[in-house]
Amino acid sequence: MHSEEIEVRTGDRETVRDITRECARFAADAGAPDGLLHVFVPHATAGVAIIETGAGSDDDLLTQLRDLLPADERWSHRHGSPGHGRDHVLPALVAPSMSVPVIGGRLALGTWQSVCLVDTNGDNPTRTVRLSFLAG
After folding, report:
1. Distance separating alpha carbons of residues 95 and 63, to the nearest angstrom
2. Which of 9, 42, 46, 114 sits at 20 to 30 Å (Cα–Cα) from 125?
3. 46, 119 in Cβ contact below 8 A?
4. How far from each other are the two terminal CA atoms of the chain, in whole angstroms?
Protein backbone atom coordinates (compact mmCIF):
# COMPACT_ATOMS: atom_id res chain seq x y z
CA MET A 1 0.00 0.00 0.00
CA HIS A 2 1.22 3.49 -0.88
CA SER A 3 -0.13 6.56 0.99
CA GLU A 4 0.21 10.32 0.87
CA GLU A 5 -1.44 13.32 2.53
CA ILE A 6 -2.32 16.41 0.54
CA GLU A 7 -3.43 19.79 1.86
CA VAL A 8 -6.45 21.41 0.29
CA ARG A 9 -7.19 25.09 0.83
CA THR A 10 -10.95 25.45 1.26
CA GLY A 11 -11.10 29.04 2.51
CA ASP A 12 -13.65 30.55 4.85
CA ARG A 13 -16.83 29.66 2.89
CA GLU A 14 -18.73 26.51 1.97
CA THR A 15 -17.06 24.84 -0.96
CA VAL A 16 -16.94 21.86 -3.25
CA ARG A 17 -13.25 21.63 -4.21
CA ASP A 18 -12.27 19.41 -7.16
CA ILE A 19 -9.28 17.25 -6.19
CA THR A 20 -9.39 14.92 -9.20
CA ARG A 21 -6.07 16.18 -10.58
CA GLU A 22 -4.26 15.44 -7.31
CA CYS A 23 -5.90 12.00 -7.09
CA ALA A 24 -4.99 11.18 -10.71
CA ARG A 25 -1.36 12.21 -10.16
CA PHE A 26 -1.15 10.07 -7.04
CA ALA A 27 -2.67 7.03 -8.79
CA ALA A 28 -0.34 7.41 -11.79
CA ASP A 29 2.70 7.58 -9.48
CA ALA A 30 1.62 4.62 -7.33
CA GLY A 31 3.86 2.14 -9.14
CA ALA A 32 1.13 -0.35 -10.08
CA PRO A 33 -1.24 -0.05 -13.03
CA ASP A 34 -4.38 -1.44 -11.39
CA GLY A 35 -5.91 -1.15 -7.94
CA LEU A 36 -8.06 1.06 -5.77
CA LEU A 37 -7.52 4.67 -4.78
CA HIS A 38 -8.92 5.28 -1.32
CA VAL A 39 -9.67 8.92 -0.45
CA PHE A 40 -10.21 9.83 3.21
CA VAL A 41 -10.81 13.17 4.92
CA PRO A 42 -9.77 12.94 8.60
CA HIS A 43 -12.04 15.78 9.71
CA ALA A 44 -15.33 15.75 11.62
CA THR A 45 -16.83 18.45 9.38
CA ALA A 46 -15.97 17.52 5.77
CA GLY A 47 -16.62 14.75 3.28
CA VAL A 48 -15.76 13.56 -0.21
CA ALA A 49 -18.09 13.08 -3.16
CA ILE A 50 -17.97 12.10 -6.80
CA ILE A 51 -19.92 14.77 -8.64
CA GLU A 52 -19.89 16.76 -11.87
CA THR A 53 -18.30 20.18 -11.40
CA GLY A 54 -18.38 23.37 -13.42
CA ALA A 55 -21.92 22.97 -14.76
CA GLY A 56 -23.72 24.00 -11.58
CA SER A 57 -23.98 20.65 -9.81
CA ASP A 58 -21.42 21.68 -7.22
CA ASP A 59 -23.47 24.79 -6.41
CA ASP A 60 -26.66 22.70 -6.41
CA LEU A 61 -25.09 20.34 -3.86
CA LEU A 62 -24.22 23.25 -1.55
CA THR A 63 -27.73 24.69 -1.95
CA GLN A 64 -29.30 21.36 -0.99
CA LEU A 65 -26.96 20.95 1.97
CA ARG A 66 -27.96 24.46 3.16
CA ASP A 67 -31.62 23.41 2.90
CA LEU A 68 -31.03 20.13 4.75
CA LEU A 69 -28.55 21.53 7.28
CA PRO A 70 -29.32 25.21 7.90
CA ALA A 71 -26.66 27.25 9.69
CA ASP A 72 -28.87 28.34 12.58
CA GLU A 73 -29.15 27.77 16.32
CA ARG A 74 -31.13 24.47 16.21
CA TRP A 75 -28.00 22.33 16.68
CA SER A 76 -26.95 20.93 20.05
CA HIS A 77 -23.28 21.12 19.06
CA ARG A 78 -22.62 24.85 19.51
CA HIS A 79 -18.91 25.72 19.51
CA GLY A 80 -17.43 27.66 16.59
CA SER A 81 -19.33 29.96 14.28
CA PRO A 82 -23.15 30.20 14.48
CA GLY A 83 -24.81 27.04 13.18
CA HIS A 84 -21.54 25.10 13.24
CA GLY A 85 -23.33 22.04 14.61
CA ARG A 86 -24.63 21.35 11.11
CA ASP A 87 -21.06 20.94 9.90
CA HIS A 88 -20.66 18.00 12.27
CA VAL A 89 -23.72 16.31 10.73
CA LEU A 90 -22.38 16.71 7.16
CA PRO A 91 -20.23 13.52 7.16
CA ALA A 92 -23.37 11.45 7.79
CA LEU A 93 -24.68 12.72 4.42
CA VAL A 94 -21.42 13.22 2.50
CA ALA A 95 -19.16 10.37 3.61
CA PRO A 96 -15.60 11.12 4.73
CA SER A 97 -14.16 8.40 2.47
CA MET A 98 -14.52 6.68 -0.90
CA SER A 99 -12.69 4.30 -3.20
CA VAL A 100 -12.14 4.77 -6.92
CA PRO A 101 -10.98 1.98 -9.26
CA VAL A 102 -7.66 2.58 -11.02
CA ILE A 103 -7.14 0.79 -14.33
CA GLY A 104 -3.98 1.18 -16.34
CA GLY A 105 -2.74 3.86 -13.97
CA ARG A 106 -5.81 6.06 -14.53
CA LEU A 107 -8.85 6.79 -12.39
CA ALA A 108 -11.81 4.83 -13.80
CA LEU A 109 -14.23 7.75 -13.50
CA GLY A 110 -17.09 8.49 -15.86
CA THR A 111 -16.84 11.33 -18.37
CA TRP A 112 -18.26 14.04 -16.11
CA GLN A 113 -17.25 12.64 -12.72
CA SER A 114 -14.82 14.45 -10.44
CA VAL A 115 -13.51 13.58 -6.97
CA CYS A 116 -14.39 16.49 -4.69
CA LEU A 117 -13.82 17.61 -1.13
CA VAL A 118 -17.06 18.97 0.34
CA ASP A 119 -16.55 21.42 3.19
CA THR A 120 -19.27 23.54 4.80
CA ASN A 121 -17.09 24.63 7.73
CA GLY A 122 -15.55 28.05 7.15
CA ASP A 123 -13.78 27.89 10.53
CA ASN A 124 -11.05 25.61 9.09
CA PRO A 125 -9.60 27.06 5.86
CA THR A 126 -7.19 24.18 5.18
CA ARG A 127 -8.00 20.46 5.04
CA THR A 128 -5.95 17.30 4.89
CA VAL A 129 -6.90 14.52 2.49
CA ARG A 130 -5.28 11.09 2.82
CA LEU A 131 -4.78 9.19 -0.42
CA SER A 132 -3.97 5.47 -0.32
CA PHE A 133 -3.37 3.13 -3.24
CA LEU A 134 -4.13 -0.56 -2.85
CA ALA A 135 -2.54 -2.50 -5.72
CA GLY A 136 -4.68 -5.10 -7.44
Report:
1. 18
2. 114
3. yes
4. 10
